Amino acid sequence: MNDSETLVTEIPTRWVGPLRVSGDAIAEASASDSDPAAVPHAEIAVPLATYETPLWPSVGRGASISREIPGGIRTVVVGERMSRSVIFVADGAVDAEAAARTVRSRLPELQEVVSAGSRHAQLLEAHTEVVGNLLFVRFAFLTGDASGHNMVTNASDALMQRVLSWGLGLDYGSISGNFCSDKKATAVNGILGRGRNVVAEILLPHEVVERRLRSTARRVADLSTRKNLVGSTIAGAIRSANAHYANMLLAFYLATGQDAANIVEGSQGITYAEEREKGLYFSCTLPHLIVGTVGNGKHLAHVNANLERLGCREEREPGANARRLAALMAATVLCGELSLLAAQTNPGELMKAHLLMERKETPSA
Questions:
Q1: Residues 74 and 85 in one domain
Q2: In terms of domains, do 48 and 143 share one?
Q3: Hey, how many other C-beta atoms are within 10 angstroms of the C-beta on 277?
Q4: pTM
Q5: Neighbours of 1 (CB within 10 A)
Q6: Splitting the chain (365 residues) into consecutive groups of 10 residues, what average pLDDT does each group show?
Q7: CA-to-CA distance for 327 and 82, rounded, in angstroms?
């Protein structure tokens, strides 16, 4: 075998669902909450590539429950952007701050630079930070249906050259300054935004919680607080309070040609649950999903087929297919998160289910 030969690693993949999902990224029309039965929705199966095969029936349980609810899982894309931070080096902090003011004041000129190099990238802002004689500039862009890694790096290269041409007393530091922040668990992505920011939510009647999850709204809400919020806080989690977002995201990322390393920041998110008069309110907030429907990896035959089946290959406005994909990912995360937390409200249920499912999947020795 030649070391340069490209091989294929098999990962078991199964379509799970369908999930009942609503929201502007899924169905174009909208309806009033006063008539939930009229909310436009779609029922969509999702591909999950994973070696942890109990994930399939767990997400499947959440998906099945979503089909009992009018409108199913409601999703909303709160924001979208991709960032790249660069470093300039000045003689001192005074010069660095003066240059920062200039950069912020000349954004229209910088947008012209971006437009000259890309048909899709759009500069949204330049957030500056001065540390000693170092000037960090965090550029944020819209990138259409691409996740945007290469697009924003290419644009930032051109922006650095333009800023350096202004004669501000700056030298080149680096094209990437870790203030982006790419594939690292940091706070800045949730604060300033990076990727698609999506919230998925559902309201389950008490009867459904008891019949399908063998639990109660109070027990699920209490566990979410004690485990996800308090437990994550004492563990030192960074803007993250969830049970296992990474499981669903990695499986979805691998099946749809995403850069799997981005689950590092993608799995930072918050699960929130409340006991209400009408039942269990349950939500998953994923502030930085770095995903796209075009770009590297999306040309592979199986990836293209999966994206097409998900409805993410349609002729829509720029960014709409990627927003749809992100909304489906958030809804899938909710299905798996709800199923796991409900199981953990019952002593012994989690381990019993894993043993039963894994023995079925593993051939006897």
A1: no
A2: no
A3: 6
A4: 0.92
A5: 5
A6: 76 97 81 58 97 95 97 97 97 98 97 92 96 98 95 96 98 96 94 96 98 97 98 97 98 97 96 98 97 91 95 94 98 98 85 59 46
A7: 17
Asked if residue 186 lies in contact with residue 288, where contact means CB atoms within 8 angstroms, the answer is no
Round to whole Å and give the CA distance between 218 and 225: 11
CATH number of the domain within which 275 lies:
3.90.770.10
Residues taking part in catalysis = 52, 259, 354
What amino acid is encoded at 54 in this protein?
A: P
Instruction: Judge whether 181 lies within some domain.
Output: no
214 and 352 together in one domain: yes
Kindly state whether residue 185 falls inside one of the protein's structural domains: no
DSSP 2-71: -TT--------EEEEEEEEEESTTT-S----TT-GGG--EEEEEEEEE-S-TTHHHHHHHHHHHHTTSTT
What's 145's domain CATH number? 3.30.70.420
Of the candidates 61, 81, 71, 79, which has an alpha carbon nearest to the alpha carbon of residue 26? 71
User: Rounded to an integer, what distance in angstroms lies between the CA atom of residue 123 and that of residue 11?
Assistant: 38
Structural domain for 170, as ranges: 81-174
Rounded Cα distance between 2 and 135, Å, is 45
Q: Are residues 161 and 227 in the same domain?
A: no
- 189 in a structural domain: no
Alpha-carbon gap, residue 139 to 167, rounded angstroms:
20
How would you classify residue 345: left for phi > 0, otherwise alpha for psi between -120 and 50, otherwise beta? alpha
For 282-292, what is each residue's pLDDT tens digit? 999 999 999 99
- Answer whether residue 3 is part of any domain: no
As separate numbers, helices (DSSP H) first and strands (DSSP E) second, the chain gives 13, 9
> Are 96 and 130 contacting, i.e. CB atoms less than 8 angstroms apart?
yes
Do 130 and 50 lie in a common domain? no
User: How many residues are given for the chain?
Assistant: 365
Residue type, 173: G
Strands (E), 150-215: 171-174, 195-205
In a shared domain, residues 255 and 310: yes
